[in-house]
Every structure is written in structure tokens, then in C-alpha cells.
Amino acid sequence: MTLATSARSIDRATCEALDAADPLARFRDRFALPDGVVYLDGNSLGALPASTPAHVARVIAEEWGVGLIRSWNDAGWFDKPRALGDRIAPLIGAAPGEVVLGDSTSASLFQVAVAAARLRPGRRVIVSEAGNFPTDLYVLEAVQELLGEGAPLERRLISDAGPTLDDVLDDDVAVVVLTQVDYRTGRMLDLADVTRRVHEAGALMVWDLCHSVGAVPVDLNAADADFAIGCTYKYLNGGPGSPSFIWAAERHHDAARPAITGWHGHARPFEFGIGYEPADGITRFRVGTPQLLALAGLESSLDLWDEVDLAELREKSLRLTELFISLVDARLARWNVEVVTPRTSARRGSQVALRAEHGYPVMQALIARGVIGDFRAPDLMRFGFAPLYVSHADVWDAVDVLEHVLATEAWRDPGYARRGAVT
Ligand SMILES: Cc1ncc(COP(=O)(O)O)c(C=O)c1O
Fold this sequence. Notes:
CATH topology of the largest domain: Aspartate Aminotransferase, domain 2
Structural class: alpha/beta
Distance between the termini: 38 Å
Number of domains: 2
Number of helices: 14
Bound molecules: pyridoxal-5'-phosphate
Mean pLDDT: 96
Radius of gyration: 22 Å
CATH superfamily of the largest domain: Type I PLP-dependent aspartate aminotransferase-like (Major domain)
Order of helices and strands: HHEHHHEHEHEHEHEHEEHHEEHEEEH
Largest sheet: 7 strands, mixed
CATH architecture of the largest domain: 3-Layer(aba) Sandwich
Low-confidence stretches: none
Shape: globular
CATH class of the largest domain: Alpha Beta
């Protein structure tokens, strides 16, 4: 019997039994989650690994406090963006030496999108998706202006309602920039299939993996992709503001000319020459002094990721999202709560979005009761299922509280309608 067919008969004890058999359950205690909280927002900001406070405190007290400037060499500070990149590589199907830590995801996208477009001179179109995370579209506008000669490069946006990718691909397209797992709906694109179609048109493929890395297994090299960027503060649990990563396929390293040519991407930064010469390999995508305290948080969380089997991660992620969808279907139908996330598992990342009238106050009422998700305008409640610390019993409890909030109309409390700067 699948979870879908048995949802009506599932009770909390069933979920506890699933937890008892869960090979990833041992990771839960490696996170410092507050008591009484069901945390379903790891797709926005990952939870705090229990080891991180001591690790960051040690970096501050010893590497900074005692080592002082010597830590650039003695504690490996200078190479840290490359060293941590090599530890992210196995999570995204990259080879050692292909990944480096950068700045914000937005800045890193600028770095690689410019490099990619310059590898296709003469082509005047950048393709993306209307529903892409807006920062991607905003950054691409800057790329269009920077690289267009006379007039900005043209932008073509695909969407579910059309045009499709195949509609817009032709031999004028330089670069396609897509987010693999949609930040609102959790819909997942087939990395290899999309990349192949883009290459058939002679264009290059840039992937935004913000909602993929640490959520689903990714294999960039098997897909033959060109460039990728992604957040480390979501499923990777690097901490608020931990830097993004940049991946460039090795075949592009020598020819790539990133947007920002800073001294940490120079071939010989400590010769202090007056002309820019790109470093070999992925290092040329570096810009300036890395955010070492933020990298310390990421370094600590990567200790956990070194131990994770990505096949087990995906299996649990799908179990959690399927359980959530089944329980929502079985218990919330009378309030017209609509699951907008694809029900086909191959098309789903590790989050589920629900469309509901009054979604914003409903989410605030949930948060007030310890079930933390978030809301994306105009009408979506998002629930992220980070398999390292979300349990099947959490899923049960979340739907139980949601049903209670809807049945009692607790969300009507005027306090829940007040909007913060961040939703
Ligand atoms: C798909 C996607 N891309 C980019 C970003 C923005 O990243 P940053 O704020 O690190 O620049 C986000 C943030 O949530 C995102 O979801």
C-alpha cells in the first residue's frame, strides 16, 4: 500500500514507525533545533548544526584572535574557498578543482553568466524563465546591458503557459539560465534533458541550484552542463549569509572571462602587478577577500554532509513530501487547499507548496504554534522538508496543526495579517 492510498489510515504511530526505520534519523541530533518547533523552512534558511557554534567560536578565538594575520597561511584561509568547493563537489556531481565559494548567489550568477555569454560571441539572446527567482532576472538584465553592443542583449522568458524552451531556442541564443527546482512550487527540471536541448541549439547552460544542492542528488558533469551556482545557507545549513558556490565545467576554465576580475582571481595576487591575469582553473572566478567567518559555519556543516548518502537522502525526501501531500489531500480538502507541487516524484524537489485562500495569516498562525514554513506572494504557503532533520512525525504534526488552524479559523486573529519585511 502506498502512502497515497493509505493516508486516511495513517496515524502518528505509523509515522513514528517510519522514523524508527529511517537510516537518516541519526542526523536529527546533530542539529540544535529548539524544542516544540517543527522546522519546515530549511529551503530558505537551514537549521543550525550542533557543532557549528563551537567551530565558529574556535575560528574566531584561535585563528583570528591568536593566529591573527598568520592564519592566512597557517589556517589555510587563502585557499578556503577552493578547499570547501572541493567538499561541495560530490554533492553536485562536480570534479575536484571545479567548484569555488563566491559571494552572494546573485553576485556569483553575474560572475558566471557574463563568462558564459562571452563564450558565445555574436549570439544576442539570453533565455530564462518568467517564474525564476527574481534576482536571477535582475542580474541578467545587467548582463544584457553590459554585453550588448549598441543595444542590450535580448531576453526571452519561457513559462508554463508558453513559450516553451523549444519555442525560444535558436542559433541566436547564447546562454540559458534556469533554476532546477522552482523556489515557489518545488517543480524540478531534468538537468540532463534540458542541458542537451540547450546544447543542440549551440547555447551554454547555466544552472541555479539553490533549491537542489542538499535537497536532491545533482550530477552536473553527467548532464554535461556548463556553469552552475547555488546557495549554501538553505539545505546545506551553512548559516545566514554563508557564501554561494560557483561551478564551471573544466573544459571552460581556460577560456572563461568572469565579470569581476578581482585580485583573488589573479594568477599571482601577491606580486601586486598593475595588470589583470586570470588564475588557472576555477580560481579565476574568485573576486576578493573571502568571508571567512561565514565560511567557518559552512565548513562545520560540511562535516555532516561528508557522511550523507545522497540516494538515501532522496528516498527520504520523497517519502516526506509524499506523506505531506497525502495527508493534505486526505484532511484539508474541505478548505480548498490545493497542492501546486508536482505529484510525479521525478518532477519534485524537496519542498511542497500549498495554495490556499488567506495563506499569509494561516502561515502566521502556524508559525505561532511552532510549525515554521513561509509564504510567497501572491498565495503560496511553502513547506521545505530537509531530510537530515525533518521526521515523518513532524510531517504528521504539521498537517495536524494546519487542520486545527483551518477548522478553528484561528488565522482570523488580526495579528496574523500584519506583514513583516520578510514573509
Ligand atoms: C533560486 C534562487 N536564486 C537566487 C537566490 C538569491 O540568493 P542570494 O540572496 O544569496 O543572492 C535565491 C534566494 O532564495 C533563490 O531561491
